[in-house]
């Protein structure tokens, strides 16, 4: 199971990184035309951001990089950045490529344009260098998953050993080693991960110095120090009360190294979110790590199983409460549950968690079966048989012997029934625990991907406040196409996004809105493109329903110019509406 999820994570980690921060506004605005050249740029994000060496690069109309001043935060605004520009900027379109680190430790990048005097007639496609390095991103994501897995084994295995000193030490030792190695790799790769460069950047002294001064880097260093303290505790053969208390403090501190460097520190209700994130991680570790420790221990007393079952039930309650809060905080609205990547991924996680809880219910029933109620009946039979044997003083000795033999048979039969029931319950427990552990590994994988995905609340806020890209300039082209549903006030809208909106291959995404402004489901949607000036088309985009939106991964528009986009919406089984809009396709 671990091999499968690591492979999936490796294959899925080659794309661009997405994070909590999003560009809210720019001054000059994206795609705007200003009469006089500005002396500085101002970028405002949805949350506080950290700056890198070379966070901003500005290219002139001839695609030559300009020498700019040093970027810095605006006075008292950690979410706003100002970049001085050189004087004497000429007419034409300028491209600004940016890359910053959001408060939740993830890098985010993009580009926008503005024009002085008038736009450049046909701006050339420009490589802004903001793509992620696939090897660095994939290895970093693998290390993050290994860190979550190691923390679960260390915390859960430690709690299980505190319950039962005879428990296997392997999960605890493996968790400590995995977490230590993963943390070291994360610390080494932090600089190239932030900068989006290759693995060679891991050995750049300037990058290492920047890592050790940022919050994510400091959290990783603190984690290594805490692991050193945990290693001292693990060397003890017996864990007394003081050692258990110290272990609990270390576990909480380890959880804080995640909470203080990821989504919890960005957005609304930060103090509550940090506490929720710590409790969520601890509950996950105690439950899933304890399951692995249970599987690795050859013999566990029934009383210990019952205690761990009660603890696991408490962990489930904590996970449900904190999970609901984190989902509300990340989504912001029910529409984001199906309308954003974060929401759709959260639905997948909820489905797997539901299966996990079903497996946990089976394990709990199996543990109750290990209570062996027949054992009480054996004791009563033995007492009853003894009373009969001792109470027959007037009978012959042979009768007493016969009663004793019968009593032994009753006891043996009852003990055999008890052992058989315990064996069956034990097998059911093992199967349920194996299923829990496997699904738990999958939940950790999805949680790792969620930690690197922009939450729905931030995505919605950025979409509302960020100006749309102007057709003909680099970036996504967004076009609203109203359509009539019949009757007064019965008008819907199709929002079509064409990215990158240049000659060649582009992706198409379309969202249909009803008269109330909410998402609407339609039986069919077709989008085609025609270039009348050259007699090209129509080219069918072949969009398909992706569950809440329509999309096509590729449509090829071979020539620049003003294309006519035709949008056909089937509003019922018998009625359809077609509308056209012009779309500018740049070179």
Query: Given the C-alpha coordinates, what overall shape results?
Result: globular
Largest sheet composition: 5 strands, mixed
User: What share of residues is helical?
Assistant: 40-55%
Radius of gyration in whole Å, from Cα?
Answer: 32 Å
Q: Enumerate the spans where pLDDT stays under 50 for 5 or more consecutive residues.
A: 1-19, 372-398, 402-422, 465-474
Structural class: alpha+beta
> In percent terms, what proportion of residues is strand?
15-25%
What is the total tally of β strands?
18
Whole-number mean pLDDT: 75
Tally of alpha and pi helices: 13
CA-CA gap between termini: 47 Å
Task: Give the gist of this structure.
By secondary structure, the chain is of the alpha+beta class. Helices cover 49% and strands 21% of the residues.
Provide a descriptive summary of the structure in words.
This protein is α+β, with helices and mostly antiparallel strands. Helix content is 49%, strand content 21%. The protein contains 13 helices and 18 strands. The protein has helices at 2-12, 134-163, 170-195, 205-211, 215-234, 241-259, 270-296, 302-331, 335-339, 341-369, 374-391, 397-451, 456-465, and strands spanning 23-27, 32-34, 40-45, 49-50, 56-59, 72-74, 77-84, 92-102, 107-116, 477-484, 491-499, 504-513, 524-531, 536-540, 544-545, 550-557, 561-570, 576-585. Strands 2, 4, 5, 8 and 9 form a five-stranded mixed sheet that branches. It has a five-stranded antiparallel sheet with strand order 10-11-12-16-15, with no helix packed on it. A four-stranded antiparallel sheet has the order 1-3-7-6. A hairpin with a 4-residue loop joins strand 13 and strand 14 (536-540). Helix 2 runs antiparallel to helix 3 (170-195), helix 2 packs antiparallel against helix 12 and helix 3 runs antiparallel to helix 5. It is globular and about 80 Å long.
């Amino acid at each position: 199971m671990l091999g499968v999820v690591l492979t999936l994570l490796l294959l899925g980690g080659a794309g661009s990184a997405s994070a909590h921060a999003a560009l809210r506004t720019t001054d000059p605005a994206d795609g705007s035309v200003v009469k006089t050249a500005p002396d500085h740029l101002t970028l405002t994000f949805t949350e506080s951001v950290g700056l890198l060496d070379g966070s901003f690069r500005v290219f002139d109309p001839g695609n030559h990089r300009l020498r700019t001043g040093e970027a810095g935060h605006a006075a008292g605004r950690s979410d706003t950045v100002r970049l001085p520009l050189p004087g004497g900027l000429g007419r034409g379109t300028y491209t600004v490529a940016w890359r910053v680190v959001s408060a939740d430790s993830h890098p985010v990048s993009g580009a926008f344009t503005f024009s002085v005097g008038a736009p450049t007639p046909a701006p050339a496609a420009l490589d802004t260098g903001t793509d992620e390095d696939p090897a660095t991103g994939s290895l970093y994501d693998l290390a993050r998953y290994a860190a979550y897995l190691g923390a679960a084994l260390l915390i859960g295995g430690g709690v299980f050993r505190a319950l039962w000193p005879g428990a296997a030490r392997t999960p605890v030792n493996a968790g400590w080693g995995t977490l230590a190695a993963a943390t070291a790799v994360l610390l080494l790769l932090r600089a190239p991960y932030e900068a989006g460069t290759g693995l060679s950047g891991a050995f750049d002294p300037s990058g290492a110095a920047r890592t050790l001064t940022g919050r994510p880097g400091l959290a990783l260093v603190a984690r290594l120090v805490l692991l050193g303290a945990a290693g001292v505790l693990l060397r003890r053969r017996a864990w007394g009360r003081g050692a258990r208390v110290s272990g609990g403090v270390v576990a909480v501190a380890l959880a804080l190294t995640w909470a203080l460097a990821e989504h919890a520190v960005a957005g609304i209700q930060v103090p509550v979110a940090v506490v929720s994130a710590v409790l969520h991680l601890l509950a996950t570790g105690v439950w899933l790590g304890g399951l692995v420790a249970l599987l690795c221990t050859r013999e566990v007393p029934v009383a210990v199983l019952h205690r761990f079952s009660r603890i696991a039930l408490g962990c489930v309650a904590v996970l449900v409460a904190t999970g609901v809060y984190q989902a509300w905080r990340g989504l912001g609205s029910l529409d984001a549950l199906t309308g954003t990547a974060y929401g759709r991924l959260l639905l997948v996680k909820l489905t797997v968690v539901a299966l996990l809880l079903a497996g946990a219910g089976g394990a709990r029933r199996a543990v109750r079966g290990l209570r062996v109620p027949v054992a009480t009946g054996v004791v009563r039979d033995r007492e009853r048989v003894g009373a009969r044997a001792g109470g027959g003083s007037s009978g012959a000795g042979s009768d007493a012997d016969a009663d004793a033999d019968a009593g032994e048979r009753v006891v043996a039969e009852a003990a055999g029934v008890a052992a058989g029931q315990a064996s069956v319950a034990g097998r059911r427990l093992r199967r349920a625990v194996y299923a829990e552990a496997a699904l738990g590994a999958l939940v950790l994988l999805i949680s790792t991907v969620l930690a690197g995905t922009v939450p729905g609340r931030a995505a919605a806020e950025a979409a509302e406040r960020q100006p749309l890209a102007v057709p003909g300039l680099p970036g996504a082209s967004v076009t609203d196409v109203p359509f009539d549903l019949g009757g007064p006030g019965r008008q819907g809208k199709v929002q079509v996004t064409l990215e990158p909106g240049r000659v060649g291959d582009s992706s198409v995404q379309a969202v249909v809105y009803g008269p109330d402004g909410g998402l609407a489901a339609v039986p069919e949607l077709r989008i085609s493109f025609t270039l009348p000036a050259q007699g090209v088309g129509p080219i069918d985009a072949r969009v398909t329903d992706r569950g809440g939106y329509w999309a096509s991964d590729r449509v090829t528009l071979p020539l620049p110019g003003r294309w006519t986009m035709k949008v056909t919406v089937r509003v019922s089984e018998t009625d359809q509406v077609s509308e056209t809009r012009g779309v500018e396709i740049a070179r």
